[in-house]
Amino acid sequence: MPALSALPFLKPVHLRPPRSSPGGQRRHTLPASEFRCLSPEDAASAFEIEREAFISVSGDCPLHLDEIHHFLNLCPELSLGWFEEGRLVAFIIGSLWDQDRLSQAALTLHKPQGSAVHIHVLAVHRTVRQQGKGSILMWRYLQHLRCLPCARRALLMCEHFLVPFYQKCGFEALGPCQVTVGDMAFVEMQHAVRGHAFMRRNSGC
Hints:
Blueprint: E1 34-36, H1 43-58, H2 65-74, E2 79-84, E3 87-97, E4 116-124, H3 133-145, E5 153-158, H4 163-168, E6 172-176, E7 187-192
Parallel strand pairs: 4-5
Antiparallel strand pairs: 1-2, 2-3, 3-4, 5-7, 6-7
Pfam families: Acetyltransf_1
InterPro entries: Acyl_CoA_acyltransferase, GNAT_dom, SNAT-like
GO molecular function, one term: aralkylamine N-acetyltransferase activity
């Protein structure tokens, strides 16, 4: 007996041919929302978002364009971008670090043998801010890190006014950071990364 005849309740599925544009060409559509690791080709778009987000507040960027290229060439798997219809709207870039706390060297180095992921920057495009995208992207990023065997914890440094935001994302404050940029001081924060990613969807996605 053919295998299909043993399952009479299964009806054949008739696929419709792909819809074409008036000119007869097949129409390609981009996903409405997509999360993926960044590539060096995304560096310019990321820098434009970061520059607008940070220069107006602090006068400088966590990463300059050449540094974004540097990390996306060395460790693209430690980045995550949120794309809407093919356009980058938010992103995170990280690298590995091999010490308990961040130091000045952590701003530019990637330590392949490290087990701490240093989150250099989280930035959201100005047109989609105040929509919860930063916290959703961070949640996605932490789930992504749980799939990487090298990652044991995530570290970041932020200004005092951002501490409540990262606490809501599950980070705990470790105290003043050793790193300074000009006259700016930072709080160092940590999030444990353990186990496997929970395959559940965030209700805000």
